[in-house]
Description:
The complex is a heterodimer.
Chain A: H1 2-12, H2 15-19, H3 36-54, H4 57-63, H5 68-98, H6 105-108, H7 117-138, H8 146-166, H9 183-213
Chain B: E1 3-13, E2 18-27, E3 31-35, H1 42-49, E4 57-62, E5 65-66, H2 71-75, E6 78-82, H3 93-100, H4 109-118, H5 132-145, E7 150-154, H6 162-177, E8 181-185, H7 189-195, E9 198-203, E10 206-212, H8 213-218, E11 220-225, H9 227-233, E12 237-243, E13 246-252, E14 264-265, H10 269-278
Parallel strand pairs in B: 3-8, 3-9, 6-7, 7-8
Antiparallel strand pairs in B: 1-2, 1-4, 4-5, 9-10, 11-13, 11-14, 12-13
Helix pairs in contact in B: 4-5
Amino acid sequence: MTKLLKKEFILTGSILSYLFILFSLMAFIPSYPILVGAFFVCLGILYTFQFAREYNDVLYTALLPINKCDTVKARYLFVICIQMVSLVLTAIVVAIRMTLLKDAVPYAENLLMNANMAYLGYFFVVLAMFNIIFLAGFFKTAFYYGKWFIIFCIVTFVVVSIGETLHHLPNLGSLNALSGDVSLQLIVLAFGAVLYIAGTAISLKLSIKRFENIDL
Amino acid sequence: MRTVLSVNNLCKQYPKFSLKNVSFNVERGTIMGFIGRNGAGKTTTLKSLVNLVHPSSGNISFFGLPLNGNEKKIKQCIGYATGGISYYHRKKIKDIINITKDFYPNWDDNMYRHYLDLFSLDEDKKLMELSEGMKVKFNLTMALSHKAEFLILDEPTSGLDPVSREELLEIFLELASKGVSILFSTHITSDLDKCADSITYIKNGEIIVSDKISSFIDRYRLVAVKEDNYAADNKMFLGVCRSKSGFTALVHSENICKFNNVQVTVPDLETIMVHLEKENL
């Protein structure tokens, strides 16, 4: 699998997939729907799928002396690596905003979503949606992805809208706090993490099954 | 001779096409030509051999090992190349090789250098900068550098100029003499006249003949038929084509004694294929 992952990063990966990780830093922008940063990270990953299709990557990989399911596992690992790096970067920004910058005026007066634990949870949810909708959809044909990306965009819009709305509801204000009671935020974070892990695992299983049955 | 590939009763159903009980064997150190017109099932069969297409039923074995359950091991010993498709065309040859060779424990760098020189391939070139012929040579270099014992080539000579084709055929003969087996599909049957040991002919998803090339040609004779005799002898004709002086008809060799006062010739592969595909007028 290490060799396949090396292949994914060197031969298949688009430079934009790596550069778009930097959109995780959008969490620094005040008064902005920062959760779209997670969307941009996924958009960056989409470029690798475009590259891969143009390069006949799936065919090349399937012809290597590997088990066919490893083609799918390698691509998932690649995506997970990109997402984890972006998550770590986001977590660093969250830590900075919740500690060093928690009293900074632009953030204290922020009406939109703050970069806190709940934000990390929502971030997980967006990434999970990408893996569940886009990845599993792509491996239905290992060729078409447009429809699945559009569905992902719509679902992301809904997730962002929910995230931006919840903290305005009565008793849910602590979801947007940068200090104080973080129990609600931790619940959102735990929910996002569990959804990401379970969703990605189910999506991988489904993709392997689908990929095994398609003719290349 | 040792059988390196055995295909038995391979079937694949598509809505408008099906492979029907495709069976043939390839022996070690031989070149088999796989012929048939467009859409006959050549590519589907060849893709089934490397698990790119899933057969509905049937058995495929390489080196005595069934493909199912031994795919990883078998792919170490075979090479697959198809004309017209290239991978990572904007990447340099050396970058592709650096990644690819890690997957093959048998990779031999000396062998790789040898074929780079032999084929005049510049590893600093991107694949998109190579001609079709050079791309085929690149694919062969990859396959031969990991010491593939069996090459599956889907129309490797299509799109090549006559000189490049000739060069490639000489390479095939050289490889066969070293024990490498080659199965290649082509429309250019004259290539097979030059190098193939055996022929497998597929028509509408069914294998019509799989035999040594000499035996294959010996099965048929070509007779020149005048228009007056066409109807009378029609039942014995396997295929008829118009010619300047009437018709040429393909017949089974054993029936040739039934024709009197006609010109009989030994057909070449192309003539056999064209007549069999055309059937009767």
